[in-house]
Amino acid sequence: MLELGCGTGHWTNYFTNKGFKVMGVDTSEAMLNIAKNKKLKASFKKANAQQLPFNDESFQFISSITMLEFVENQDLIIKEAHRVLKKDGWLILGFLNKNSIIGLNKENDETFAKANFLGIDDIKSKLEKFKSISIKSGVYLSSDFKIHNPNQNNSICLLYTS
Questions:
Q1: Which residues are CB-contacts of 44 (< 8 A; sequence separation ≥ 6)?
Q2: Tens digit of pLDDT for each residue in 73-90?
Q3: For a Cys staple, 5 with which of 37, 67, 70, 132, CB 3.0–4.6 Å?
Q4: How far is CA 108 from CA 24, 29, 121, in A?
Q5: Beta pairing partners, 132
Q6: Ordered DSSP codes for 16-73
Q7: Are 77 and 4 in contact (CB under 8 A)?
């Protein structure tokens, strides 16, 4: 699995515990150092998701959890993910919905003020080249990564096959 924007390794830990062999990439050396210091059973590389240093169709699974909101060119990252994803592979995206409480009030939070949140229609449009789409949504994820209040539309996790 390729994890785009792995940051401090929070989700890396989750995926490795589920049995995935993870290659985490991030542009932040500081974040990567935190992830590496956790001694996770994963590999890490400083890389920009807009220009991935991997061959075409290199990964069966790609994940990106709350990264797209904070990048300049979302379309280029999606194009790169599609390029390095194997045929019939899975792209797992998690992002904050622009119509959520956080999205609607992002200007009041310095972490999110400059973020470019997406809605369901936005992400569907960006991922037209992928075969099928499955959407799961909820207010937040618990420490065991289960979705709570699934009838709310505050955060979205999407699963795509190439």
A1: 6, 9, 23, 24, 25, 26, 32, 35, 36
A2: 999 999 999 999 998 899
A3: 67
A4: 31, 28, 24
A5: 161
A6: HHTT--EEEEES-HHHHHHHHHTT-SEEEEE--TTS-SS-TT-EEEEEEES-GGG-S-
A7: yes
